[in-house]
Amino acid sequence: MIFNGLLDLPWWGLVLVALGLTHVTIASVTIFLHRHQAHRALDLHPIASHFFRFWLWLTTGMVTKEWAAIHRKHHAKCETAEDPHSPQVLGINRVLWGGVFLYVKESYNRETLERYGHGTPDDWMERKLYSRFAILGLTLMGVINVSLFGAVPGMLILATQIVWIPFWAAGVINGIGHYWGYRSFDLADASKNIVPWGILIGGEELHNNHHAYATSAKLSAKWYEFDIGWMYIRILEALGLATVKKVAPTPRFEPAKTMCDYDTLQAVITNRYDVLARYAKAIKRTWSDEVERLQHWSPRDAEMLKSLKRALVRIGYGAEADRARVAEALKPSKPLQVAVSMREELIALWERSHASKEQLLRQLQDWCHRAEASGIVHLMDFSRRLRSYA
After folding, report:
1. pLDDT for 145-173, tens place per residue?
2. Sign of the dihedral defined by the CA atoms of residues 150, 163, 207, 15, in that order
3. Could you give the CA distance from residue 368 to residue 116 in angstroms, rounded to a whole number?
4. What is the pTM of this model?
5. What band does 320 get if pLDDT is binned at 50, 70 and 90?
6. Which of helix, strand or coil describes residue 47?
7. Angle between helices 151-165 and 134-149 (to 10 degrees)
8. 43, containing H or E segment
């Protein structure tokens, strides 16, 4: 009798319970730890905030300050030797299967916690219970599981709860999310959207979108993408338990102006990742035209361009060897040289924090003038589109 729980469920009922409990944990991580604590994309009512803290203490033993600090450092040092968990640096197998160990190792780095852990909870409950007795929560969860479902089913459900976040968050998101998938936005890091439907991991599957707009409470960006975490946030907002502070901008357009003004400048900077995505299409079209042209004059050069299609649309082209290969392949194609070079100038426009608005506006106007005088059809079309951002 001691091995029987208060609830007598069939095996499939126990599976559904395990999936339901782990999904609550996933929702707590993406809403509370990630979007609320690490990025301040939304505010949570104290009731909702403390529920998430309590649940994460019961099911993961994670400390809010440690999680937020490590994640913020990941964004600040992404794909460098200082990134706590980059598969581009450490290898996919190490991050996918050992991501939890990388997390624990970084949690002992006091410099990381002091530099990146600011603004996280520091109340009595955090100091005296959640941070001090992190394992106690898991112990209580185990007692509850065994009491409700019996010794063996209860411990199996607890084991599932314990490994769920280390595998899906520390392994899959931090590993596969920087290694395999599709990209909606061309960024300097290797972030990918794993699948367009963020359900199993709470919307975190849309990792490239998140890196493009880190402070957005909504991770979906395209009409066909779905972020279940955003759905939960809207429900909390309707109940008065959450307030969204920021979401990714939605590009708006008006008839193209004859010349860029300050509003155009602001719109281009605000929607810079959409601008880059559209510019990538201009480069691809120019690439296609140049491959077709070179087929008749220099088939060898055309084949070289064909092999570098993906590299051409990547910012920075990756490793030094890739950059050298791209530079060599571009020599027979003046239009592509111009298009790639002007992309770097466009990126520099919103990276020049020291420049005044007047200087930036003049640079944008000059960029558009040179693009439209280049004779490159797709670059001219893009420039006219650029002048229509509102």
Report:
1. 999 999 999 999 999 999 999 999 999 99
2. negative
3. 39
4. 0.87
5. low
6. helix
7. 140
8. strand 42-44
- Start-to-end CA distance of the chain, whole Å, equals 70
Instruction: Quickly tell me which residue has 């100091």 as its tokens.
Output: 127
Place of tokens 């530079």: 327
For the cut 90, the answer to whether the pLDDT of residue 308 exceeds it is no
3-state secondary structure of 44: strand
* Low-confidence winner among 73-77, 222-226, 331-335 (lowest mean pLDDT): 331-335
Q: Which residue has the tokens 């770097």?
A: 344
CB crowding 330-365: b at 16 or more within 10 Å, else e: bebbebbebbbebbeebbebbeeeeeeeeebbebbb
18 half-sphere exposure, CB direction, 13 A CA radius: 22
Other CB atoms within a 10 A radius of the CB of residue 5 amount to 17
Q: Name the least confident of 20-34, 61-75, 109-123, 296-310.
A: 296-310
